Amino acid sequence: MNTAGPALLTALAVSIGLIIVLCGRFRLHPFLAIVLSTYTFGFLAMGIGAATGAEERFVDDLAGTVAQGFGSILMSIGLVILFGTIIGKVLERTGAAVTLAEGVLKVIGKRHPALAMSLMGWVVSVPVFCDSGYVVLSPLQRSIARRTGKNPVVLGTALATGLYASHTFVPPTPGPIAAAGNVGIASDGLVWVILFGIPVSLVAAVAGLAWALRRTGDLESHLPDARQTFEEYKAQFERLPSTGRALAPILGPIVLMAIGSVAAFPSGDGTLVDGALGAFLTDLGSPVNALLIGVLLALALLPPRRDAKALTTWVAEGLVDAAPILVITGAGGAFGEVIKGTPIADYIGDLIGDGSAVSGIPALLVLFGLAALLKTAQGSTTAALIITSTLAQPLLPALGLDGTIGSIPMGQVMAVLAIGAGSMVVSHVNDSYFWVVSQFAGMDVKTAYRAQTAATAVQGVTALSAIVLLGLVVL
User: Which of 37, 76, 288, 424 is deepest in the core (most CB within 10 A)?
Assistant: First the structure.
């Protein structure tokens, strides 16, 4: 093993580098990049095993291992991702996202438009992709800029960073859900990712807001005055749902997952809620069942004269949005399964010994750095979350990130948060979100680098600081 270990680490580094080159330099889709890198690592590992005279062949059945890893991860979180994207699409198409935005503006008031934009972005992006959320909320951003005289770059950056924060850290957004599944967090542990992800995401949102207020006020926007008032924009919808109905598809699944987790919390020789009631609450709170209920609550937002064809189109659009995430997630699961087929984790464990040098907080820094490298190279936050979490899963015990506090998988939760922070750094020209923000806020590329790119760097580093402080307490 001492002979094979360094070679396996080198092979893993080559495979990760191949993902970066294929995505960044050749613009290959992350799915194909991960698959090709998985097979590259698998063949290299088999060759290393044969060359070093290992007693057992590394990755004995490469094709079978790839298929098993692809299928097992989709079996655990595939429906969760599908249901989440359908909820987001219906909220977008029914105008519920606009209702949520208006509600936030009423609470915050018109004196603090940048704070309102940041907070409404944070709320909307919990179920809705950040780029879709920005498109939906951009008419409101333009109207508020016109009403208040606030620089559109300031409001645009505040909105973009608010959306970005919850998009990266808070399920049911698919990225953190996939990352949680990849590192081995079971469905009943997903609520802990939500509970710890919310405060970290709020820290990131505040950092983005501070950058928008302090560093973008002198930047020029080429956005013309909004010709369409927000009232005219709202008139595009037949009837906007109430705030309570608009919130239901978001809060419903979160509350159900929280109840299920509390019911399953260990208490004495059993759980906090035993018997048939406990089993019912736990089952109801599983992410698949909770998000299915969220889908039903979202469908209830449809106007009385519902158009079956329109609904079918919206669901189809949600499935189209989910497809890239599903295949990237499956490919990531396959990569992780191949890594598990080698003794690389044992070798890393031997390297770090008692873990004093690498485990715990230093391990969080390593995961942050890897995620940031992948994000910057290939552009997709979701892909960076998925790829890094896939690589991290078999290494968590060696990195000291497999510990628990009671039933809370704290080490795994902290790993997801560190990966999420790294996956924010940075949004630039290879990121579709960069172009959505720059175009809808009227920024040229140079301005967008000073606003959006710099803000996402500040968000990621600030979130990491909060995660490190939290890690000092819980790890």
Answer: 424
Kindly give the pairing relationship between strand 270-271 and strand 266-267: antiparallel
Nearest residue to 382 via CA among 81, 27, 90, 134: 81
What does the H/E/C string look like for 423-455?
A: CCCCCCCCCHHHHHHHHHCCCCHHHHHHHHHHH
Please report which residue ranges of 152-242 form alpha helices under DSSP H.
152-169, 174-182, 190-215, 230-234
Compute CA 81 distance to the chain's CA centroid, rounded to the nearest angstrom.
Answer: 11
Q: What percent of the chain has pLDDT over 70?
A: 92
Nearest Cα to Cα of residue 463 among 218, 266, 204:
204
The 3-state DSSP class for residue 270 equals: strand
Q: Indicate the residue type of 99.
A: T
For 284-313, give one letter per residue: b (16+ CB within 10 A) or e: ebbbebbbbbbbebbbebbeeeeeeeeeee
Q: How far apart are CA 259 and CA 117, in angstroms?
A: 31
Q: In Å, what is the CA distance from 211 to each residue of 98, 118, 427, 432?
A: 25, 12, 15, 21
Residues 6 or more apart from 220 whose CB is under 8 A from it?
Answer: 153, 447
Residue type, 78: G
pLDDT for 354 beyond 70? no
Contacts of 226 (CB under 8 A, 6+ apart): 139, 142, 143, 145, 146
**112, two tokens:** 């603090």
Rg (CA), the chain: 23
Residues 6+ apart with CB under 8 A from 354: none
* Pair of tokens at residue 345: 């984790």
For residues 52 and 4, is the Cβ–Cβ distance under 8 A?
yes
Q: Can you give the pTM of this predicted structure?
A: 0.75
Under 8 Å between Cβ of 117 and 141: yes
Q: Name the token pair of 321.
A: 């949005």
Range among 43-52, 302-311, 459-468 rated most confident: 459-468
The most confident of 120-129, 369-378, 403-412, 417-426, by mean pLDDT: 417-426
Phi, psi of 270 (to 5 degrees): -130, -140
For the chain, helix (H) and strand (E) counts, in that order, are: 21, 2
**Please, are residues 32 and 21 in contact by the beta-carbon 8 Å criterion?**
no
CB 412 within 8 A of CB 185: yes
C-alpha count within 13 angstroms, C-beta hemisphere, residue 436 = 19
